[in-house]
Amino acid sequence: MLCDELSLASVPFEVDFIRAKSYLGTTSGALEISTLEVATKGEYSNKDVIIVEDIIDRGKTMTILVSKFKNEGVKTVLPVSLLDKRDVKGRVRDFGQYMAGFSIADEFVVGFGLDYNERFRDIKDVYILSNEGVDRFR
Ligand SMILES: O=P(O)(O)OC[C@H]1O[C@H](OP(=O)(O)OP(=O)(O)O)[C@H](O)[C@@H]1O
């Protein structure tokens, strides 16, 4: 999906990948960011950065990522996400203006890159994981 969109860009750009993981099963834990520290030794300073996510759930990941890029002295940072649990209780929203493709209910979703215990990322579409699915693949 990202590659399709990038091919439409009309300005020069660079792409980096960040491994940010906080979910174990359906539970959000401490956020681990493995490559950002290494990748951002000032190289984003004074640049316009777009952070592309698959989902903003509780908002913790995006909040931390935006804050880290701001600390790198970026010119602008724009969070973009395919899915957005906009009305979830307890959500953190400390990342300012952002763009999202679809606002969704507070259900655990899988497919199209989204996993449950590393399963279902390869499903072509997005599905709500049933309680039976949660138990079966725990
Ligand atoms: O808004 P939040 O509550 O922080 O949740 C959103 C994050 O959770 C998912 O990642 P996950 O931690 O499951 O790692 P993964 O991308 O390897 O599946 C998703 O890809 C986002 O990065």
UniProtKB/TrEMBL annotation:
- Give the Phosphoribosyltransferase domain ranges: 12-116
Instruction: State the GO CC annotations.
Output: cytosol
Give the matching CDD domains. Answer: PRTases_typeI (cd06223)
One GO BP annotation here?
A: IMP salvage
The record's GO molecular-function terms, alphabetically, read: hypoxanthine phosphoribosyltransferase activity; magnesium ion binding
Query: Which InterPro entries is this protein grouped with?
Result: HGPRT (IPR050408), PRTase-like (IPR029057), PRTase_dom (IPR000836)
User: What is the recorded name of this protein?
Assistant: Phosphoribosyltransferase domain-containing protein
